[in-house]
Please model this.
Amino acid sequence: MSTTGIENWALDLKDVAQIYPFQGSEGNLFIIGLVTWIGWHIWCAKWETNYHDEKIQQYGSSQNLKDAIDSD
Model:
């Protein structure tokens, strides 16, 4: 089964048309992925900070939390 129409791969691929979809868009896809990855980490850091702040407000000060964790 061939999806590219190429019968013999023993040839110079620069003489062949595109061999996979969206050829040439790798740079754009990399930039989109990088921006998404950085944005995800920024969002996670903000969410975790808000989550921990809510827990501190719910259970008391951070010193109370440390004392509760350290006590046996």
About this structure: Helices lie at 26-59, 62-70. Residues 26-70 form one domain.
